[in-house]
Amino acid sequence: MKALTIDHTAPGHLALATVADPEPAAHQALVRVRSFSLNAGEVHHAVPGGEAGTVPGWDAAGVVVRAAADGSGPAVGTPVVTLGPDGAWAELRAVDTDLIGVAPEGADLGPISALPVAAGTALRALRRIGPILGRRVLVTGAGGGVGRFALQLAVRGGAHVTAVTGDPAKADALRALGAHEIVTDPAALQNLEPVHGVVELVGGAHLVAAHGCLADHGVLVAAGHISGDGEQFPYGALFGNDRRHNRQIVTYYLLDDAAGLGADLTWLAELTARGELDPQVALRTDWTRVAWAAAELAGRRVPGKAVIDVR
C-alpha cells in the first residue's frame, strides 16, 4: 500500500512511499482510509520527533474492508471514523474496534475524519466537569481545534459559555458557534462571574487565571498546553484564600480513556452529518500536499481543521 512515512530528509519530514499492508490483530478491523485530519500535536511533535520509516497519524475515516476476527466492531462495507496512536496516514489502517465509530451512510468522510482527537477530547473533558445544564463553562484556547468543539458541545449541553481567545479576529466566528461571552485578555478573567467548569487548553498564565474563575466545587480540566509555559500560582490560590473551596484541577488524555469511545465517535459523526456539529474545516487537500498543509497548520495559518483526502 501507499502511505506517508516519516522521512527526516524530506520536506515536512514526510514522504509518500510503498510499505507493507498492516496485519490486523484479532480485535482490529482493517479500514481503507478515505480522509484523515491533521492535529497540532502531530505537526509540532509526533512527526518531527518520530521514528524514520513509520506511518504517523491519529485520526482517519474510511470504510471497513476486513472485519475483526474476534467478531467485534463493524462489518465489511461500513463507513467508519477511527482513532489510534499511529497509522492513519495510509491507504489501509488496522485499528482497535474499541476506537471505531460508525459514520452515516453517504456522509462526507472528510469533515468526519476531523472528529476523533479534537471532538473526542472536548466531549470527554466536558464530562469530567459534570452536569453543565444551566451552568457556566469557560473554554480557553477556544479558537483552536479542541476549543471550537468544546464550545459547541457545551452550548448544546445547555451551558452559558465564555470563550477565551488570544486573537480578537476570531470573536465573531466564536459567537457564531454559540459563545455567550468572548474574552481576549486573560487579565479580564479576574472580573468574570465564577464558573462551574473550565476546559483549559493553553496552560501557563491562562490556566492560573482560569483556575481563579472557578466557583466552589468547580472543576478545571487541563486538556492542552499550547503555550508551552509552566504555571505559577499566587500565594493562597490553592487553599481558598479567595474564599472559594473544594475546587479541582484534573488532567486529561484521550488515548488513556478509550472505554466506550466508539459509541462517542458514532454520536459525533451523526451530529456532523446532520449539520449540528461543525468541524470548521478550513483547509482540505489531497495527500500529495500534506507537507504544505502541515506547515500551514504549524504556522497557525489555518483557522480551523485541516483535512487530507487519500487519492
From TrEMBL:
Xref: InterPro entries: ADH-like_C, ADH-like_N, ER, GroES-like_sf, NAD(P)-bd_dom_sf, Zn-ADH-like_protein
Checking Gene3D superfamilies in the record gives:
Medium-chain alcohol dehydrogenases, catalytic domain (3.90.180.10), NAD(P)-binding Rossmann-like Domain (3.40.50.720)
Q: Which SUPFAM superfamilies match?
A: GroES-like, NAD(P)-binding Rossmann-fold domains
User: Where is the Enoyl reductase (ER) domain positioned along the sequence?
Assistant: 9-308
Q: Which PANTHER family match?
A: QUINONE OXIDOREDUCTASE-LIKE PROTEIN 2, SHORT-CHAIN DEHYDROGENASE/REDUCTASE
Protein's recorded name: Zinc-binding dehydrogenase
* Organism (species): Streptomyces luteireticuli
**Taxonomic lineage from the root:** Bacteria, Bacillati, Actinomycetota, Actinomycetes, Kitasatosporales
